[in-house]
Specification:
The chain is of the alpha+beta class and 152 residues long. The protein contains five helices and ten strands, in the order αββββββαβββαβαα. The strands form three sheets. It has a five-stranded mixed barrel with strand order 1-2-3-8-7. Strands 4-10 form a two-stranded antiparallel ribbon. A two-stranded antiparallel ribbon has the order 5-6. The termini are far apart.
């Protein structure tokens, strides 16, 4: 009898959230956030400069690197179907996932092009290192980490 009660109680436990996929036309909020079908999706494993963030070129010339990162992601998704594999929800209620246009991993591509840093995971450390060596995107500037910028 006890075994039956234990098995029955296990059946009543909530199941962990299943991974979901969202596809559609994306609107870009900034270099690491898109909206598909009214759902805000934070690109996992990356951190792009904030929209209002500037970086310094040649140590003296301010550059709107946050706006530039937003434009780069916008160009990558423009008039294309974006598919996001959702893996979590962040503390702000946004979905968190890895997004693709066809076979192109947008998260990876933003880091590879130098417009986002690898963040919280090590998934894109190699691409970040290559972008840094190539002085691609923000690596051609002096910049504050986006996470530090947000803290201010």
């Amino acid at each position: 009898m006890h075994v039956l009660l234990v098995l029955l109680s296990l059946c009543l436990l909530p199941l962990p959230a299943m991974a979901a996929t969202i596809s559609g036309t994306a609107r870009v909020i900034d270099g690491d956030t898109v909206v598909i079908r009214k759902k805000h999706i934070r690109l996992i494993g990356i951190d792009a400069p904030e929209k209002r963030q500037t970086c310094m070129r040649w140590l003296i010339i301010p550059s709107s690197c946050g706006k530039q990162a937003t434009l780069i992601l916008t160009e990558m998704v423009k008039r294309k179907t974006v598919t996001c594999d959702i893996v979590d929800t962040d503390r702000y209620g946004r979905l968190v996932g890895r997004c693709f246009v066809g076979d192109t991993d947008l998260n990876r591509e933003m880091v590879r092009r130098g417009w986002a840093l690898s963040y919280w995971t090590n998934d894109y450390k190699q691409e970040e290192g290559e972008a840094r060596l190539a002085k691609a995107g923000i690596w051609a500037t002096r910049f504050e980490k986006p996470s530090d910028f947000r803290k201010k």
